[in-house]
Amino acid sequence: MVGLKEELLKSIWHAFTALDLDRSGKVLSHNLCTVLNVPHDPVALEEHFRDDDEGPVSNQGYMPYLNKFILEKVQGNFDKVEFNRMCWTLCAKKNLSKSPLLISDEDAFKVWVIFNFLSEDKYPLIIVPEEIEYLLKKLTEAMGAGWQQEQFDHYKITLNTSREGLSAWELIDLIGSGQFSKGMDRQTVSMAINEVFNELILDVLKQGYMLKKGHKRKNWTERWFVLKPNIISYYVSEDLKDKKGDIILDGNCCVEALPDKDGKKCLFLIKCLDKSFEISASDKKKKQEWIQAIQSTVNLLRAGSPPPHKEARLKRKALRQRLLAEHEELERQMRELQTANENKQRELETVRKQLEAAAARAAEEEKKRLQTQVELQDRFSSELEREKMVRQKMEEQVAQKSSELEQYLQRVRELEEMYKQLQEALEDEKQARQDEETVRKLQARLLEEESAKRAELEKWHLQQQQTIQMTEAEKQELENQRMMKEQALQDAMQQLEQLELERKEALEQYEEVKKKLETAANNTKSWKDKVAHHEGLIRLIEPGSKNPHLITHWGPAAFTEAELEQRQKSWKGKKTTSE
Question: Per the database entry, which stretches of residues form a coiled coil (predicted)?
Answer without folding.
Answer: 316-530
